[in-house]
């Protein structure tokens, strides 16, 4: 985890942007698949069961989500790796966020075209589902004022607690099958329980607005995206990155510490 965080911190700007763009675009396609499955079957849990396919694809290809770098990049600073700085960390986070957003908007536009015959027809049932979700997850929270905003923040914490566990879990296996299983479980939990993921929402709300959702960009940012990003940061950094660094990382160790030594 520390090595992965260090490599991401010092990655070339071009590579960070490309990998983040592809991650946002692929995750968005998986959201479209999940919503389509939920609409076709009438059971949202079906969408949750298949959504992790997108996360598995992008992670296996080495692409980066903002949620993942929230958990891993700070570890290079914790470990005082040469050249690791706060400014470098914030630069990485900013570049990944920009890349994820660009990728999500790209896929949102492509999916919107496919759902409306290039905006020449009314949205399909799937398109209307996106519009409804966008309204419910902004205006629905706004009805509760500060309590609604805080609820979104907490959902963001819970989301990236699970998502970052998926990132780390994949590191435990050397086989593709093992990695997929390790990623699938926590991603299923987050999506099935409708927690809030910053990059998913970079796609869901723009597409929802294209499909006719009666919300503004301000509604999206204030009542969802901002508290979700903050929550994702807390969940990934504190509940996954910091916890595992504190309990599992042994500086100077020549071999992994047996699990029995922790009992």
From TrEMBL:
The chain crosses the membrane at residues 16-39, 45-73, 93-119, 147-172, 184-206, 226-246. GO terms for molecular function: formate transmembrane transporter activity. Belongs to the FNT transporter (TC 1.A.16) family. The keyword Membrane applies. Its main location: membrane. Keywords: Membrane, Transmembrane, Transmembrane helix. The keyword Transmembrane applies. It is a multi-pass membrane protein. This is Formate/nitrite transporter superfamily. It holds the Pfam family Form_Nir_trans. One of its GO terms (cellular component) is plasma membrane. PANTHER family: FORMATE TRANSPORTER-RELATED, FORMATE_NITRATE FAMILY TRANSPORTER (EUROFUNG). It is found in: Membrane. InterPro entries: Aquaporin-like, For/NO2_transpt.
